[in-house]
Design brief:
0% strand, 108 residues
């Protein structure tokens, strides 16, 4: 399930980038003198459909972000994934490495 949400999230990311880049920005004074009529989507710009598609993909992006976070969370509250390893004693800390060091001037 988490792989499906992750794939949908990546597709939504790419589509969102493309739809945002396809939209024309505010052209300022050039629109007043007729500079905006030669655009790909006509004189009114991309307007309706591209804005609606961008909004839809942005909502999908938000939902997949939250959904993937909920699916992959451990549900343990503040517990980390390292805590069980530390309790088992399988992780050696920096104290283990300095115990056998004969060149350490701090040790007697």
């Amino acid at each position: 399930m988490d792989k499906l949400v992750l794939i949908l999230h990546i597709v939504a990311c790419v589509l969102l980038i493309l739809f945002v880049l396809l939209q024309s920005g505010k052209e300022g004074m050039g629109v007043i003198f007729g500079g905006g009529s030669s655009s790909l989507f006509g004189s009114t710009g991309a307007g309706g459909i591209l804005v609606k598609l961008t909004t839809f993909v942005a909502v999908v992006f938000l939902c997949t972000s939250l959904g993937y976070n909920i699916i992959t969370s451990t549900g343990g509250g503040n517990a980390s994934r390292i805590t069980p390893l530390l309790q088992e004693g399988s992780v050696s800390g920096p104290a283990d490495a300095t115990e056998d060091s004969p060149d350490d001037p701090a040790q007697p």
